[in-house]
Amino acid sequence: MGGSESVRDIYNRNGADGSGSDSESDSKSDSNRNVLNASGSGKVCSNADAKTKTNAKVRERGGEKEKESEVILDTNELRLIEGHGRLKVRLSGNRIEAEFHNLEGPRFLTAYLRGKPAEMAPLVASRICGLCYTAHSINAAEAVEEALGITPGEEVVELRRLLYLANNLRSHMMHLLFLAVPPIKNLISVLRLREKDLVEAGTRLLSTSTQLIEHWGGRSVHVPNVVVGGFGALVRGKELMESIQKIESLRADARKFVEHVLEMELPELERFRTMISLKADGYPTYARSAPLIINDGSTITDEEYVNDLEEVVREYSTSKHVYFRGSEATVGALSRIMLNRRRLNSEAREYAERIEWRINPFLMVKAQAVEVMHYLEEIVEAGERLSDATISPNGYPCMGNGKKGRQAEPSCFTGRSGKGIAIAEAPRGTLCHACEIEGGLIKDYRVYTPTAVNSKSIEMDSVEMVKRFRPLGGEKLKYVLEDLVRCYDPCLSCAVSLDFLSDRGS
After folding, report:
1. Measured between alpha carbons, how far is 296 from 274 in angstroms, rounded to an integer?
2. Mean of the pLDDT values across residues 478-489?
3. Is-cis flag, bond preceding 117, omega within 30?
4. Quick check: 207 and 182 in contact, CB under 8 A?
5. Is the residue at 476 inside a domain?
6. Where are the alpha helices (DSSP H) in 53-114?
7. Pairing state of beta strands 85-92 and 95-102?
8. Which band of pLDDT confidence, cut at 50, 70 and 90, is reported for residue 273?
9. Does residue 328 have a pLDDT over 90?
10. CATH code for the domain in which residue 301 is found
11. Residue 468 lies inside a defined structural domain of this protein
12. pTM for the full model?
């Protein structure tokens, strides 16, 4: 596909959002819909500002005045994403700029960890997000373990990997089924899909993967079973096999869902940028001490990666952007597929070979679909390896029976210090936790989330989309931009600032 005509065909919305009478009522009640202005120049403004254009204040930088900028497109609050966000596009002279706003309230969880016992890190980190808690708790435990020189057993590592796979499978299914696929098909809800069998298949996959996390992690939300050094409750491999057999029986459901997503027609928006992913022996998801690979062919260590990251405050957002070597980078399913697809399991690799992979953010949807099949296969294989395992309660704190267990003594890490980094491939991309511990207490803690890394790419892709497809007009372009943002699967609860913005406005 190519050219604005192809995109116009895909996004030939019937009314405001292509969903018939419901969209008509939505359109009538929404006074801030974006429309072409009366001049017919192709510039987009909201109804509220159709007569009076919104101009930004003139700012002074380096003694030179910037030209006044006007908001030419405003999505208002983005629909069908995790959290509350907004995308604004501004025109300043001949320059188009985009702003990806995180509207979530800051929570300062990493600031709270300073001065606390090191073993608290997994428990607190799991509260960062109600979707990504498994990834955050495992990364937190491993960052502390590296800092303190703790080496968990092989079975602990394997079970954590299995938890990570289940977390990624569930997240992908939730995003694809409920958030990404319906609006691309011009629907306001998954309940409007004609393929009811597809909805049922996707729901079974989502439900079963959630049950896996609940069984192994201790509960379905904010898994308490992941602790520094191991697991807080007894885990028997034989008990896992019932869950493994359930998910293995859903292969046909997975194939049906993946086939449907891969056949979807998507717009083209190819733009070169740096892409990053873990590089492991197999397809990267969870791998201790693995290097990272960049699409220029080079590899870097986890320490080099952290040193190359820079947090940048944006006055319009409650989350910081994270730059890599002073510029943008893209992480996530598309980066993993493009840099590691030969390491996919056999069936997932066959699906991947059907697609002509390019640096087109819309292809992230298809990359996630391919990974669904890969994660399912990996879960089954990992479960079989753990079938005879028995993992006793260990680690810090010891949770006893997994319900009320005792907290570790404050002195358990007294006198122990160090720095640790844990990097893994969370659903939305490369997730990094870095900590510094002094005398058993957390001195510094940093979290670099995939959405914070991808924020700059979201903005630059939005600018490119507006440049190429402004002839579509504001009404349709707004929904194309929403779909673009949604393809990144942003998690704004994760990305919101977890630390004080002491340099805000600097």
Report:
1. 8
2. 95
3. no
4. no
5. no
6. 109-113
7. antiparallel
8. very high
9. yes
10. 1.10.645.10
11. no
12. 0.84
List, in sequence order, the alpha helices (H) in 11-105: 21-29
Query: Which residue, of 105, 140, 170, is where some domain finishes?
Result: 105
Task: Tell me if 479 is assigned to some domain.
Answer: no
Q: How confident is the model at residue 395 (pLDDT cuts 50, 70, 90)?
A: low
Token pair recorded at residue 437: 């511990």
| Whole-number Å distance between alpha carbons of 213 and 392 | 18
C-beta of residue 384 within 8 angstroms of C-beta of residue 152: no
Residues 320 and 444 in one domain: yes
* pLDDT band, residue 500 (cuts 50/70/90): low
Range of the domain at 126: 109-452+490-495
- Whether the CB-CB separation of 85 and 486 falls below 8 Å is answered with no
Q: Is residue 258 part of a domain?
A: yes
Shared-domain flag, residues 166 and 40: no
Tokens of 16: 């405001």
pLDDT of 336 above 70: yes
Q: How many domains does the chain have?
A: 2
Residues 96 and 132 in one domain: no
Whether residue 374 is found in the same domain as residue 261: yes
The percentage of the chain sitting over the pLDDT mark of 90, rounded to a whole number, equals 65
| pLDDT: which is higher, 270 or 232 | 270
Q: Which stretches of 83-191 are DSSP H helices?
A: 109-113, 121-125, 133-148, 154-174, 181-184
Beta-carbon neighbour count of residue 304 at 10 Å? 12
Beta bridge pairs of residue 426? 429
Query: Given CA atoms 249, 250, 256, 258 in this order, what sign does their dihedral have?
Result: negative
